[in-house]
Write a structure and sequence with these properties.
This protein is 44% helix and 13% strand. The chain is of the alpha/beta class. The protein folds into 2 domains: 4-230 and 402-415, Rossmann fold, CATH 3.40.50; 245-400, Rossmann fold. A 7-stranded parallel β-sheet has the order 3-2-1-4-5-6-7, with helices on both faces. It has a 6-stranded parallel β-sheet with strand order 10-9-8-11-12-13, with helices on both faces. The longest helix has 32 residues, at 159-190. The radius of gyration is 21 Å and the shape is globular.
């Protein structure tokens, strides 16, 4: 007889897509899975056959949650990071108030909580459930040897780098304070142990990262319960997406996407088109529904522009990806051995881009530094130097042996004693 597993995660594609893959792997092992989400019920979850229970109640209604995420599409850098954490603070209030009641009523026997859903572990503790943490973004765990995820820095073994890292972590903790305070106050009222920082809200039993270990900076303070399993992907891929394949003309393909959240940067799409114009390549742009192809108008080089693309199929055909450095897109690129030019926008994207450059699988250019000249030069270098592809292929090989969603589901079953 299987168990009933609940999943708490942000209602955003970069978190939902890997969690659907993990939920599918958990279900394959004979367990029932229910999602607990703020915001509107995503079609991808219901289409996959999973139940959804609303978390927001009157504290953070679905329409307000979705509206706050829409604002991210026009924000960049620290402004977007601050807005993301402001959403998280309001979400924490709703989850702490509504979560225990709906989780208890659902009858789940264990929880799987996204690392960015900071109050989820407290819900588990209040209801008396075992839980595992899953990091669908970069690892958020603090470590003075590692620059915080929102920076573009690479690790340096120097006194000034360690001081710089510590100061950045302190600054990030100040931004986390409204979230942490809500959790501390809630746990204090219940007589639960009170965390000194957010690293103590994650599971002390199991923390799963969908990064392959090769794609993480060397750490000094990594918790022993962290397991690197590689990308969480559905075995059969995602539902098919229509695409005008007949428009591909046989030239080497460059695929460009700025994701599905912070993607309303029409000027950047134009710069990408200008940078690729005149190269021996055909450009395909996916706008991610941020702007319509019609809004972009006629771009230099006449690239194929669509609102949404069959990304993995195109990455397999491409010679280069130009990406916002969202972790899911980067991992999909690396899983095909594809080098990249990364243009990070906000949140953990600068840290993802820094790791792409660190392993040698591409180059990174900050969104504020993107010009036609800088981007074109980076594209030419990455396409012409085989070392970039060789580095990407090393990560591809590591991904193929890291286990993915089936391994993550196995670890959850073992560590949370499901069915024991």
């Amino acid at each position: 007889m299987g168990e009933h597993v609940g999943i708490i995660c942000p209602n955003a594609p970069g978190h939902l897509n890997p969690m659907v893959a993990l939920a599918d792997a958990i279900r394959t092992r004979g367990h029932r899975v229910t999602f607990f989400l703020l915001g509107a019920s995503p079609a991808s979850i219901t289409a996959a056959g999973f139940e959804i229970v609303a978390l927001g109640g009157d504290i953070f209604p679905a329409d307000q949650y979705q509206a706050e995420f829409q604002k991210l599409a026009v924000l960049q850098d620290r402004a977007a990071l601050k807005h993301t954490l402001a959403i998280s603070a309001r979400a924490a209030e709703a989850v702490l108030e509504v979560g225990p009641t709906v989780v208890r009523a659902s009858g789940v026997t264990a929880l799987v909580v996204d690392q960015a859903s900071f109050p989820g572990g407290t819900v588990a503790d209040q209801v008396g459930l075992p839980f595992a943490t899953v990091c669908n973004a970069l690892l958020l765990n603090p470590d003075p040897a590692v620059p915080p995820y929102f920076t573009h820095w690479q690790p340096r073994d120097a006194w000034w780098a360690r001081i710089r890292n510590r100061m950045a972590w302190v600054g990030l903790n100040r931004l986390y304070a409204p979230i942490l305070t809500r959790i501390q106050n809630h746990r204090r009222r219940l007589g639960l142990s009170v965390p000194a920082d957010l690293s103590q809200v994650w599971s002390d039993t199991l923390q799963i990262s969908q990064q392959p270990e090769l794609f993480e900076f060397s750490r000094r303070e990594l918790p022993k319960q962290v397991e690197f399993v590689g990308p969480l992907r559905l075995p059969g891929g995602y539902p098919p997406v229509s695409f005008p394949w007949e428009l591909l003309d046989g030239r080497p393909l460059i695929y460009a996407s700025l994701g599905t959240l912070q993607n309303r940067i029409a000027g950047t799409f134009r710069v990408i088109a200008e940078a690729c114009d005149g190269l021996d390549a055909q450009l395909v742009i996916s706008t991610g529904h941020g702007v319509t192809p019609q809004e972009l108008g006629q771009l230099p080089g006449r690239p194929v522009v669509v609102s949404y693309a069959p990304q993995l199929d195109l990455l397999r055909r491409a010679t280069l990806a130009v990406t916002h450095a969202g972790l899911n897109t980067v991992l999909e690129s690396l899983s095909t051995g594809l080098p990249m030019v990364a243009i990070p926008v906000t949140n953990d994207q600068p840290g993802v881009a820094a790791r792409v450059a660190w392993i040698g699988a591409g180059e990174a250019i900050s969104i504020k530094d993107v010009t036609f000249q800088a981007l074109r030069a980076a594209i030419v270098r990455v396409r012409s130097d085989p070392s970039y592809r060789m580095a990407a292929e090393r990560v591809r090989d590591a991904i193929h042996t890291s286990g993915g969603a089936p391994r993550a589901a196995e670890l959850i079953e073992q560590r949370l004693l499901l069915g024991a």
